[in-house]
Structures are given as C-alpha cells and as structure tokens.
Request: fold
Amino acid sequence: MASAECKREIEDPKQYEVRRMLEALERKFVAYIIFAVIYGVVFINYIDIVYSGHGYHLWLIAMYFVPFIALSIFNLRKNWRLTLGLGFIASLMNDLFYGVIRFLIGMPVDLVRYYSLWLIPHGDALFSLNLGFATIQVYSWMMALSIYARIILAVALLWTWKLQAKERCISGKEPKRKPARTIKEKVRGFFEI
Reply:
C-alpha cells in the first residue's frame, strides 16, 4: 500500500489519470466480453431451444446485437466495432454451446457428432435457416466457415476498438460536448434564419 502511495506522489498527475482511465477501460472491456458470453450461452441458447416460427432466424440474428446497440446509440462512429464484435461473440456462444445446453437440460444430443458437423466442414445438411421471406438450407461446411469467420471478425473488431479507445484515453481527445442550451436558447435558435 505504501509503495502505491509513493508511486502516486512521484507519478505525474496527468500520467496517473491516464493510467487510471486505461485500467477502467480494461475492466469495462472485460465486463463487456463476460456479458456477451453469458448472454449468448444462457439467453440466446434458451431462445433457440424454446422458440421457432416464421422468420425465427432473422429475429434471432437481431437478438444477438440488441443489448449492445446501447453502446453505439450515442456515438456510432466511436463504438460500432464494439457493438458488432460483442454481437458476434453472442452468436458464437449460441452456435458453440447450443448442443451442450440442450444436453444439460435433458434433451438427447450426440455432442461428438454435433461438434464434428459444426466445426469440421462436411456436406451434411444441418437445418433450414428461416428468414421469413426465404428459407435457406444450411450445410455443415457453411456453418463451420461462418464460425471461423465470426471468430476472426470478433477478434479484429474488438481489438481495433480497444486500440482506438486506448488512444483516445492517452491523447485525451474525447469529443467535447456542447454545453446544454436552455429552452429559451433552443426556441430562439429554431426561429432564427
């Protein structure tokens, strides 16, 4: 404890603040990843097991991203990579743990065959992708390629977002918000030509 106190006294206050911001960013980033994993494994798999119907897969794809849209709603330019990357993680948790979750709730699943078909490209048909406006037969090779592509995309998107977020912390170039205007100023600005 004493060494941390001495370090803080010696460390430049600006560097100390940047270090604290980077540590907070790291904690948030880990929390986002953990939430995406739990959301995908528990919530999305539950939906996938319990529900099916017209346009079901289109709805499921949207559900991968819904909880993460809030991260981008106010600043899309800054956080779209984070939103997409976390959505891809949720979708991966659905595909990678669907068989295990079915098995754990008592539904018979041959997990060796499941993972063989999902992760090793074969020519076997897996299921019909119901988009509402079209139905597409999904084959083992398509699922395997999509899983590996999503892994690459999720890592790339989250890695680039994290690098940019760290750079914003270090440079201190967070976008400045305009001070809130009063209602009177808003009304006056509306009627000015």
